[in-house]
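Model it.
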Amino acid sequence: MKSIAIIGLGRVGLALAVLLWRQGWTALRVYDRNPEKVQLLNRWIEGVPVHCGSPAAAVAESSLVFLAVQDRNIKPLALALAASQPAANFSGIFFAHLSGALTSLELSSLQALGASTFSLHPLQSLADPAGAIKALPGSFFSFEGDERALPLAEELVRALSGHLVRLAAEDKVLYHAAAVVSSNFFIALEGMAISMMAGIGVDENTARRMLLPLIRGSFENLERVSPAEALTGPIVRGDDATIRAHLEALRRQFPDYLKAYRLLAGLNLELAMRRGRITPADFPSLEPEA
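Modeled.
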């Protein structure tokens, strides 16, 4: 059993601490500059992990260290840890960060002192600590970094009932972009839809209740079949008249949404064409405007 340090008790760091503690990884040291985060952690953990007074103190006596901080702070924190112990030999110690877009090269200052470094990113939407504790188990985690760390990463992911996917360093940015499109952009689209509902007098709470069953239906379709087969709506039906009406309504009431609608309709058209019944000629309304 590894002794673990978690530096940073944001949504992911706190959830990781709680879930690993529950799985028996109780040799746990934590640090966060905000004492309220440490108090929040104690709501979920039976027993008390070692609360350290500094990041360097958290690293001491730990064999696995998570830098669970914002992306922009990972490299400076790694540099600070390396500088705090310039004569240290970190051989046999594992350092990891949890960023989706950044690679283990952010930890190169620690690797230079002998550490084994890797990134382990949870492919999950985590809006708050309680939700993160509930959502992380069963998630996919992407691993990138030192091959010597792979068995440890696999052990961690198993403890979280998750699934591990290996990534090359050069693939992380596109992987993360795909995650942003799938999760963050989806929320932006629902924000658009709710605003459009407000344009006909439907309040936000009602609009959410109306749209959520539709969203769930789309998700269930996608669980069963490919995106092309899961697609429904006017483009699959070849209904250019409805698309034209949508564009006119947006032009009158939500002109800022026209560009996004046309782009997304074009992507829908590409999907529909895979089914072999629809062509661009079926949708003159989507032709580039003069």
